[in-house]
Amino acid sequence: NFPSLLTFALIFFLASALLRTGDYVFKSIWVFLSSAILLAVFQMLHFLSGSLFGAFLLPWDFSRVIDFKSVGTANALAIFFGLALVTAIIMLASQMFTGKSKIILYAAAALFLAHVILIGFWPVWFGLVLAMIFLISYRFINELRLAKTKGVSEFSIKKLSLPIAVFVVAFLLLLAKPPIGNFLNFAVEIKPT
């Protein structure tokens, strides 16, 4: 619809005008990942407390169901966490992080992957497969180019281990739909044709 298109165009214009340096882009990615981590922790606590103990985090009646989500539907939540997972993996594959930030990114990637597995929306798996193919190809070509300019092969498969692992998991879950997410009993999403 037109208001959504106008909003996204405005966001795109403001982002291109305001995020001119790498530092601002880097900070905005960290803000996005931080908010995604907070949402993932909240949703995981809500899933677990509701399914295991029957107690929910928020006191309102509309939030006392297992499939209460603060980001629209279950499929929208899966798409959001899929995007956050790809962002975290790209940040980890850039090899720019050490120490606490690397541990936080690995924990965030594991949490996002757990959410995507629990929800089990197949287009997210397909998107993850495509994104990991692109990321693995890009990193591989860059490493080969770097090895050619230096004259010595310094390529290590360890740099690609996380994208390859996510690719394998996403590909397997795309081929065989596991019954992992069935115990949460999400409401069926109906979309008009």
What would your notes on this structure say?
This protein has helices spanning about 1-20, 20-55, 75-95, 100-120, 120-150, 160-175. The protein is an all-alpha fold and about 190 residues long. The longest helix has about 30 residues, at about 20-55. The chain is globular. About 25% of the residues are buried. The model has no long low-confidence stretch (mean pLDDT about 75).
Features:
193 residues, mainly alpha, 6 helices, 69% helix, globular
How many DSSP E strands? 0
β-strand percent reads under 5%
User: Structural class of the secondary structure composition?
Assistant: mainly alpha
In DSSP terms (H or I, runs of 4 or more residues), the helix count works out at 6
State the end-to-end CA separation: 16 Å
Query: Radius of gyration in whole Å, from Cα?
Result: 19 Å
The quaternary structure here is single chain
Shape assignment: globular
User: Which bin fits the share of residues in helices?
Assistant: 55-70%
Low-confidence stretches: none
What composes the largest sheet? none
User: What's the average pLDDT?
Assistant: 77
- Give the helices and strands as they follow along the chain: HHHHHH
